[in-house]
Structure formats: structure tokens, C-alpha cells
Amino acid sequence: MQSLAGQFLIASPYLPDPNFLRTVVLMVQHDDEGALGLVLTRPIHLTVQEIWKNVSGENIDAPENVLQGGPVEGPLMAIHQEEKFAELEVIPGVYFSSQRENIEPLIHESRSEFRLFLGYSGWGAQQLEAELEVGGWLTLPAKKEQVFETNNDILWKSVSGEVGSNIMRESLNLKRMPQDPNVN
């Protein structure tokens, strides 16, 4: 089995789970025991400021929305660009943290982008592979600029369009494909 860590999972129309309708998931970990990913396209109606007030009692200026990382409850998690606070490198320059001692300095000190998540997407052993087998997910290598895209529509269109172009290119056995196939 090839690890999907560092890949995007894009929900296909064949995935029956409504938790993942029109989602882009960044795969953080994937091995024989299971997988963990974070949904990048599900903001919730809580800001980083509100969450941090609940967690620490501190008032901070952070109006960004927190994301619903998936349907599984878990600790507050972060994707960020600060290697010194990393617990795991997801792709070059993109790191994952779930320990408070790493998330707190991100919130207070970080000058680079980060995203906070409540919950995560989790799969048991072979569960994700079974969903992939029936066409529930499409995959694409994750890119740093897409991971930190805050406009969900732009992110969804960007990655789903890229996957569609890849499928067309492969099925037609093309080396290159124009951005807009209508100009062909």
C-alpha cells in the first residue's frame, strides 16, 4: 500500500457519506493501521479568537474561522508553516500539530499562515482503501498554496479542476492539455 499522506482527497459523487460532500481533505497520516486527514473546506461558525478564549481564557485578535476537520471528535489541531512547532511534516513547508505546547505559540507568535481544526477525518485499517477502490475519492498531490487557500469555492474548483484535467489527459493519452479545452 502506498501512503496517501501529503495528498488531497477530493470527494467524488460516488461517496455516499454526506459529511464529505464537496470536500477537499488533506491527508496527514496514512499507514497499515489507518488514516487521518483534515477537511479544508468546512468552516464552522467559530473563530480562532472564540476557540482560544474557550481553551485558555485569553482574549486574542484572530477573526479567522476554525474548520471542521471531519466527523471524528478530537483535540484542537493545526496545519501551519512553522517547523519549530511541528509534530509532523505533511508536505515540504506544511506541518501538523495537535499538542497545546505547539499550537499556543502558533496563535501568539506565528507570522505565517495557519489553520485550526476541530475534529478530524479518520479511517480504520483498509477502510480508506475500500472507499478508494469503489471510486469514493480522487487523489491529487497537495500544494502548499492550496492548503492555505481560505476561499472554499476557489479551493474546491482548483483541485477538482486539476483532477479532472489529469483524468482527461490520462484517458486521452495526452502529454499536455490546454487550460481551456474549448480553445483546442
UniProtKB/TrEMBL annotation:
Top-rank taxon, per record: Bacteria
Annotated InterPro entries: AlgH-like
Gene Ontology terms: cellular component: cytosol
Similarity field: Belongs to the UPF0301 (AlgH) family.
UniProt-listed HAMAP family: UPF0301
Entry protein name: UPF0301 protein Pan97_20490
